[in-house]
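Q: Hi! First time doing this. I have a protein sequence and I read that you can turn it into a structure. Is that right? Here it is:
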Amino acid sequence: NDANVQQLVNGINQMLDNYGKTLDIANHSNLRGGDDKAFAALVADMNAGNVDAVLLINVNPVYNYAGFAEALGKVKLKVSFNDSKDETGAARDYRLPSNHYLESWGDAEPNKGSYSLMQPSIEPLWKTRQYQTVLMKWAGIGGTFYDYIREYWKANVFPQAAGSEEFKAFLKNDMYSAGRAASFEDFWRFALSN
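A: Yes, that's right. Below is the predicted 3D structure, encoded as C-alpha coordinates:
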Protein backbone atom coordinates (compact mmCIF):
# COMPACT_ATOMS: atom_id res chain seq x y z
CA ASN A 1 0.00 0.00 0.00
CA ASP A 2 3.01 2.31 -0.24
CA ALA A 3 2.26 4.84 -3.03
CA ASN A 4 5.99 5.46 -3.67
CA VAL A 5 6.64 1.76 -4.29
CA GLN A 6 3.59 1.56 -6.55
CA GLN A 7 4.77 4.55 -8.60
CA LEU A 8 8.23 3.01 -8.98
CA VAL A 9 6.77 -0.33 -10.10
CA ASN A 10 4.40 1.43 -12.52
CA GLY A 11 7.33 3.40 -13.98
CA ILE A 12 9.36 0.23 -14.52
CA ASN A 13 6.41 -1.52 -16.17
CA GLN A 14 5.83 1.49 -18.42
CA MET A 15 9.51 1.53 -19.47
CA LEU A 16 9.25 -2.19 -20.28
CA ASP A 17 6.03 -1.58 -22.26
CA ASN A 18 4.19 -4.19 -20.16
CA TYR A 19 0.77 -2.52 -20.07
CA GLY A 20 -1.66 -4.34 -22.32
CA LYS A 21 0.82 -7.18 -22.85
CA THR A 22 1.88 -8.88 -19.63
CA LEU A 23 -0.21 -6.60 -17.36
CA ASP A 24 -3.97 -6.36 -17.63
CA ILE A 25 -5.08 -3.47 -15.44
CA ALA A 26 -8.72 -3.84 -16.52
CA ASN A 27 -8.82 -7.29 -14.86
CA HIS A 28 -7.31 -6.59 -11.45
CA SER A 29 -6.27 -9.25 -8.98
CA ASN A 30 -8.35 -9.76 -5.83
CA LEU A 31 -5.38 -11.35 -4.04
CA ARG A 32 -3.51 -9.58 -1.26
CA GLY A 33 -6.26 -7.03 -0.71
CA GLY A 34 -4.99 -5.69 2.60
CA ASP A 35 -5.73 -2.14 3.72
CA ASP A 36 -2.99 -0.57 5.86
CA LYS A 37 -5.12 2.46 6.81
CA ALA A 38 -8.04 0.28 7.94
CA PHE A 39 -5.68 -1.90 9.98
CA ALA A 40 -4.08 1.15 11.62
CA ALA A 41 -7.60 2.40 12.43
CA LEU A 42 -8.41 -0.98 14.02
CA VAL A 43 -5.29 -0.80 16.18
CA ALA A 44 -6.21 2.78 17.22
CA ASP A 45 -9.74 1.60 18.13
CA MET A 46 -8.27 -1.30 20.12
CA ASN A 47 -5.98 1.09 22.00
CA ALA A 48 -8.97 3.35 22.74
CA GLY A 49 -10.90 0.43 24.22
CA ASN A 50 -13.51 0.51 21.45
CA VAL A 51 -13.07 -3.13 20.37
CA ASP A 52 -14.71 -5.86 22.45
CA ALA A 53 -13.57 -8.91 20.47
CA VAL A 54 -10.95 -9.83 17.89
CA LEU A 55 -10.93 -13.04 15.84
CA LEU A 56 -7.50 -13.76 14.36
CA ILE A 57 -7.31 -16.20 11.47
CA ASN A 58 -3.88 -17.34 10.24
CA VAL A 59 -2.20 -14.01 10.90
CA ASN A 60 0.53 -13.03 13.32
CA PRO A 61 0.37 -9.25 13.83
CA VAL A 62 1.93 -9.46 17.30
CA TYR A 63 5.11 -10.56 15.50
CA ASN A 64 5.05 -8.21 12.52
CA TYR A 65 3.09 -5.07 13.50
CA ALA A 66 4.63 -2.73 16.07
CA GLY A 67 2.23 -1.87 18.86
CA PHE A 68 -0.31 -4.60 18.10
CA ALA A 69 0.47 -6.63 21.24
CA GLU A 70 -0.20 -3.63 23.48
CA ALA A 71 -3.45 -2.85 21.64
CA LEU A 72 -4.53 -6.49 21.79
CA GLY A 73 -4.09 -6.42 25.56
CA LYS A 74 -6.94 -3.86 25.72
CA VAL A 75 -9.44 -6.12 23.93
CA LYS A 76 -11.82 -8.12 26.13
CA LEU A 77 -12.05 -11.27 23.98
CA LYS A 78 -9.21 -12.56 21.81
CA VAL A 79 -9.67 -15.76 19.77
CA SER A 80 -6.92 -17.23 17.60
CA PHE A 81 -7.82 -19.71 14.85
CA ASN A 82 -4.16 -20.00 13.78
CA ASP A 83 -3.14 -23.54 12.93
CA SER A 84 0.27 -23.14 14.56
CA LYS A 85 1.61 -21.73 17.82
CA ASP A 86 2.91 -18.22 17.32
CA GLU A 87 3.28 -14.88 19.11
CA THR A 88 -0.31 -13.80 18.40
CA GLY A 89 -1.69 -17.16 19.51
CA ALA A 90 0.19 -16.80 22.79
CA ALA A 91 -1.61 -13.49 23.46
CA ARG A 92 -5.13 -14.85 22.97
CA ASP A 93 -7.84 -15.84 25.43
CA TYR A 94 -8.89 -18.86 23.37
CA ARG A 95 -6.99 -20.86 20.78
CA LEU A 96 -9.19 -22.82 18.37
CA PRO A 97 -6.77 -24.15 15.77
CA SER A 98 -8.36 -24.38 12.37
CA ASN A 99 -7.69 -27.09 9.83
CA HIS A 100 -4.61 -26.69 7.68
CA TYR A 101 -5.48 -25.51 4.17
CA LEU A 102 -4.71 -29.00 2.83
CA GLU A 103 -7.48 -30.30 5.15
CA SER A 104 -10.03 -27.63 4.19
CA TRP A 105 -12.73 -26.65 1.75
CA GLY A 106 -12.72 -23.16 0.27
CA ASP A 107 -13.30 -21.09 -2.80
CA ALA A 108 -11.83 -17.97 -4.34
CA GLU A 109 -12.35 -15.37 -7.02
CA PRO A 110 -8.73 -14.37 -7.76
CA ASN A 111 -9.91 -12.24 -10.70
CA LYS A 112 -13.43 -10.96 -11.37
CA GLY A 113 -15.47 -13.76 -12.90
CA SER A 114 -12.77 -16.40 -12.41
CA TYR A 115 -13.82 -18.83 -9.68
CA SER A 116 -11.95 -21.73 -8.14
CA LEU A 117 -12.58 -24.37 -5.53
CA MET A 118 -10.21 -25.65 -2.90
CA GLN A 119 -10.83 -29.16 -1.63
CA PRO A 120 -9.06 -31.16 1.06
CA SER A 121 -6.25 -33.37 -0.10
CA ILE A 122 -5.86 -35.07 3.29
CA GLU A 123 -8.04 -35.92 6.28
CA PRO A 124 -7.51 -33.69 9.33
CA LEU A 125 -4.42 -34.88 11.19
CA TRP A 126 -5.41 -33.42 14.55
CA LYS A 127 -8.61 -32.57 16.38
CA THR A 128 -9.17 -29.33 14.51
CA ARG A 129 -12.22 -27.82 12.86
CA GLN A 130 -12.32 -25.46 9.92
CA TYR A 131 -12.81 -21.94 11.30
CA GLN A 132 -15.64 -21.18 8.86
CA THR A 133 -17.65 -24.08 10.31
CA VAL A 134 -17.07 -22.70 13.83
CA LEU A 135 -18.23 -19.23 12.77
CA MET A 136 -21.31 -20.75 11.10
CA LYS A 137 -22.16 -22.61 14.31
CA TRP A 138 -21.78 -19.43 16.37
CA ALA A 139 -24.05 -17.62 13.88
CA GLY A 140 -26.69 -20.35 14.13
CA ILE A 141 -26.12 -21.64 10.59
CA GLY A 142 -26.37 -25.42 10.39
CA GLY A 143 -24.15 -27.77 8.41
CA THR A 144 -20.51 -27.61 7.49
CA PHE A 145 -18.56 -25.15 5.40
CA TYR A 146 -18.58 -27.74 2.59
CA ASP A 147 -22.41 -27.62 2.65
CA TYR A 148 -22.33 -23.82 2.64
CA ILE A 149 -19.93 -23.57 -0.32
CA ARG A 150 -21.83 -26.16 -2.31
CA GLU A 151 -25.13 -24.31 -1.82
CA TYR A 152 -23.48 -20.98 -2.67
CA TRP A 153 -22.06 -22.39 -5.89
CA LYS A 154 -25.42 -23.94 -6.76
CA ALA A 155 -27.25 -20.62 -6.35
CA ASN A 156 -24.61 -18.18 -7.62
CA VAL A 157 -21.83 -19.72 -9.72
CA PHE A 158 -23.67 -22.52 -11.58
CA PRO A 159 -26.21 -20.17 -13.23
CA GLN A 160 -23.35 -18.01 -14.58
CA ALA A 161 -21.12 -20.87 -15.76
CA ALA A 162 -23.67 -23.39 -17.05
CA GLY A 163 -23.36 -22.13 -20.63
CA SER A 164 -19.58 -21.75 -20.77
CA GLU A 165 -17.65 -23.46 -23.56
CA GLU A 166 -15.45 -25.28 -21.04
CA PHE A 167 -18.48 -26.76 -19.27
CA LYS A 168 -20.11 -27.75 -22.58
CA ALA A 169 -16.90 -29.56 -23.60
CA PHE A 170 -16.81 -31.33 -20.24
CA LEU A 171 -20.42 -32.48 -20.65
CA LYS A 172 -19.71 -33.75 -24.15
CA ASN A 173 -16.83 -35.90 -22.92
CA ASP A 174 -18.15 -36.88 -19.48
CA MET A 175 -19.45 -40.45 -19.40
CA TYR A 176 -21.84 -39.67 -16.52
CA SER A 177 -23.62 -36.74 -18.12
CA ALA A 178 -23.54 -37.52 -21.86
CA GLY A 179 -26.93 -37.25 -23.51
CA ARG A 180 -28.81 -35.45 -20.74
CA ALA A 181 -29.40 -31.88 -19.65
CA ALA A 182 -26.72 -30.28 -17.54
CA SER A 183 -27.36 -30.47 -13.81
CA PHE A 184 -25.70 -28.92 -10.82
CA GLU A 185 -24.18 -32.33 -9.99
CA ASP A 186 -22.49 -32.33 -13.40
CA PHE A 187 -21.25 -28.80 -12.83
CA TRP A 188 -19.99 -29.63 -9.33
CA ARG A 189 -17.95 -32.56 -10.73
CA PHE A 190 -16.64 -30.26 -13.47
CA ALA A 191 -15.69 -27.55 -10.95
CA LEU A 192 -13.94 -30.00 -8.63
CA SER A 193 -11.94 -31.55 -11.47
CA ASN A 194 -10.67 -28.23 -12.87
